[in-house]
Amino acid sequence: MDFEPKLVGFLCKWCSSAGADLAGVSRKNYPSNLIPITVNCSGRIDVSYVVRAFHDGADGVLISGCHPGDCHYNSGNYKAWRRVALLKHVLEEFGVNPDRVKLKWISATEGEKFAQTIKGFTSEIKELGPGPYNDARERE
Amino acid sequence: MTGKPRIGVFICHCGENIAGTVDVSSLAEEIIDYEDVTFSTDYEYMCSDPGQNKIKEAIEDEDLTGVVVAACSPSMHEDTFRKVAESAGLNRYQCEIANIREQCSWVHGEDGGSPTKKALKIIKGTVEKVKRNIPMEPVEREHSDKCLVIGGGIAGIQAALDVAEAGNEVILVEKEPTIGGHMAQLSETFPTLDCSQCILTPKMVELNQNLNIELMAYSEVRNVSGYVGNYEVQIERKPTYVDPDACNLCGDCEDVCPVEVRDEFNQGLTTRKAINIPFSQAIPSSYTLDTEACLGLNPLRCSECADACDADAVDFDESSEFVEEEFGAIIAATGYNLYPKEEMGEYGYGKYDDVIDGLQFERLLSATGPTEGEVRRPSDGKVPENVVFIQCSGSRDPENHNSCCSKICCMYTAKHAKLYKENVPDGNAYVFYIDIRAGGKDYEEFIQDVREEDRVLYLKGKVSKLKEIDGKLRVWGLDEISGERVEIDADLVVLAQSIVPSEGASETSQELNLNLGPNGFYKEAHPKLRPVESLTGGVFFAGVGQGPKDIPDSVSQGSGAAAKAIDLLSKPTLSHDPQVVEVEEDLCSGCGICVGQCPYDALEVNSREVAEVNEILCEGCGTCSSGCPTNALSLKNLTDEQLTEMIHATLGD
Prior knowledge:
The complex is a heterodimer of chains A (140) and B (653). With 140 residues, chain A is α/β, with parallel strands linked by helices.
């Protein structure tokens, strides 16, 4: 059976969630693997959520916020940027491929980019195979 | 909250928009078995009156403690459904939207995928959130009654006048030495052929005389902080080196000034002096010394203007003045520029003197222009016998230039051709066009009149080549209607040059955190339903900065933005979103990491060595709560517990 990755996407409500809405309005088709969770700001993402998502069986996690300089709250996206960079190092230490976490800047006007990002991320994770706890869960 | 949560889930078909790809009835059947869901149903249009009543009745009959409406994006109807929840006795924050249209049914289907499965997960996640939501009441706060208008073109003028007429104080900031914008440069306006300055300048005077309006010309917005209702803005008033109160417009300074530079008002068709007034009806009506052109503001090098001024109005020692003001609302009316010559390789624009743009032609037609309204070409002053107008120059050309339609060019080109024919009855006017877009009131009739009565020859097709041969501009093109190649030896070529947002748009967007669309125009909060609002609270748009538009549309939008600003300013207090961060003091170590993370200075470590939140300043981004090492901070209704449970629910089967 084809591997269908389970993906979670944390979307900033001011930009990327609106970009996802625009992808909808423009009927840009993309795979349905990623479940969006809209948050106030990419800065709201505690990196422990990403770890939690992997623990719950996610194969990949997307965090999408406003372009640098465009944060609705001035600088939340810069904080997300730093936190994710650090997280990737930690994940690597624990043997999790850091490419399973993607940080993207997608504005409210970039519906096409949103659709392309989900398409690309879904196929990248397909290549990587099941996530760290997905395997374990199946063995249980 | 006491007792177990009782959550109702309402699934909207949105006609076929959701039901076409998502199996809505199976969703309703499956979700009823989910923990804490005690009611579920689906309906054709939840936003309709009967749909809203279903929600209301269920809340009352089933004693629901929370509601999930699975429907379109929260940007569409979150407020609608929260009002319904309120009317049935719930707190508005006990209603949440599961977006299963824009982010699900509309984007999955054709390629297979599992929209129904995805919709169920989105709904489950939303149930986990709403059942942990706490009731919240808005925080009331004071606000400033003043309005800032950025840009003094016709849209900004209209907006400022309307806001001022309603009794609010306005500061209008204009970058240039005068207000009036591009409209001041135009000769006549389509389709009525009113003289542009004759209808504009009374408005400029009215603005200047309005006691509620302070005009800050030759000024720029330098720094903006704060939020809706309380924006703190720093404005730089640049030195004009001329005291406007003393200046009596005699013009002696201009006569003696030895420096001549390109005259922007005449689009470079003439020159002006370093000390100048853009046009005679300029407001403020005073001279400005352009330091870029001046020999150096140094009496040792040149002080001709100061020496010639009998009124002693010239002062070389003037310097920038920085003004700090607080505003409740801001209207961005930053306008447009023509797509720059440097970006165009085609049509000899910038290469041949007699290839000019639409605004230059306006100046040639204008009674106050360099030729006093006689059409004479720039190179030798000759009256052109053959004039070729090229539409869509730089517009509708996504491969090379701008993808958008500039909207005004079809009409102004027709006007140009008509006015040329009136000026030179024996002359020939040719218009190359792709399509004629004359959608405004009385516009199509105007175009028909120009084609039939003024005998302007319209050629459907693009110009393929333009070259100067023996003093003539040879234009090659194709007329798609006859299918024939066309060659015209023109004396003058006028390009309907694409319009682009002014530099002010990108500067303003950065200061105010506004989004710009692909062509650089401001992105509105909703393209159809909130066209004058930005996503930044209290910031509104007027004029071409938001997208190409003509004068009536700019004026309408100026009034629209003003109405929105007045609505906001007239409220006795503003309610601040209650979704703010709260501190669990027992967990707080007083480390102060959060203080540095907050972009709004809303956090401090108090005398008891614990973090304290200023609820008025907190904007609810939650960045501090993610940075807190002891989890002492939490964002109301988007807590750690809520997010982890949402993640868990969306990853389950």
